[in-house]
């Protein structure tokens, strides 16, 4: 059982990745972003997830520096993720994009670097670049985002190093059963983006009923469901109280019946693009 915010899953290469982190998708550069990152670190978060396309890596870097200083912890205690965007998926372009992300974040390395989307015909060369960064010790772990089973199979057919993480849209309306099973078999850690379905699940009657039973919020129930499914989760918030609340999910455990009821909410419904039909 995952007991606290600092608990980690061990990736197949031995790297420890926190089960929960802060996502910063659609958070603009500025004081709000920096405060959110600093606040998360202050309240015990040890994982921050950003991406080149978010346009906020510099602000995330400032928030990290402030947060580490105020919390009195070292860079090595924080797990930082970024992602290479679709326009930079060549071998050399990916290497350059990685350096630019480090510069913006003012970091010497990333803990996890991901290919953001499986652009047909491009992601294999980008993966070779990630392998190079990993073999050179420039990044602690490498992985992908939004990859379906056939994308993973195509990648693994040419890869020297298998992805360590696959970050995908995952919530009770999109439970990705087959993909979860495949990643489990391959020892690839699944990670959820948009775990709260961008707020669309907060008024669901079943989830409200389960939340009342545990004296928790609907968001807390969903995040707990993620963790009990063995899925790393990165809820986004810029509000201090919500950041604290999202992390308050370690003092209860959903029953098997609750887990199954939540799973039955599945409709294979996405709020983000379909990885097979994304207009890149």
UniProtKB/TrEMBL annotation:
<feature type="site" description="Lowers pKa of active site Tyr">
    <location>
        <position position="83"/>
    </location>
</feature>
<keyword id="KW-0560">Oxidoreductase</keyword>
<dbReference type="InterPro" id="IPR018170">
    <property type="entry name" value="Aldo/ket_reductase_CS"/>
</dbReference>
<dbReference type="InterPro" id="IPR020471">
    <property type="entry name" value="AKR"/>
</dbReference>
<feature type="domain" description="NADP-dependent oxidoreductase">
    <location>
        <begin position="31"/>
        <end position="266"/>
    </location>
</feature>
<dbReference type="InterPro" id="IPR023210">
    <property type="entry name" value="NADP_OxRdtase_dom"/>
</dbReference>
<feature type="binding site">
    <location>
        <position position="116"/>
    </location>
    <ligand>
        <name>substrate</name>
    </ligand>
</feature>
<dbReference type="Pfam" id="PF00248">
    <property type="entry name" value="Aldo_ket_red"/>
</dbReference>
<comment type="similarity">
    <text>Belongs to the aldo/keto reductase family.</text>
</comment>
<dbReference type="GO" id="GO:0016491">
    <property type="term" value="F:oxidoreductase activity"/>
</dbReference>
<dbReference type="InterPro" id="IPR036812">
    <property type="entry name" value="NAD(P)_OxRdtase_dom_sf"/>
</dbReference>
<feature type="active site" description="Proton donor">
    <location>
        <position position="54"/>
    </location>
</feature>
<protein>
    <submittedName>
        <fullName>Diketogulonate reductase-like aldo/keto reductase</fullName>
    </submittedName>
</protein>
<dbReference type="InterPro" id="IPR044500">
    <property type="entry name" value="AKR5G"/>
</dbReference>
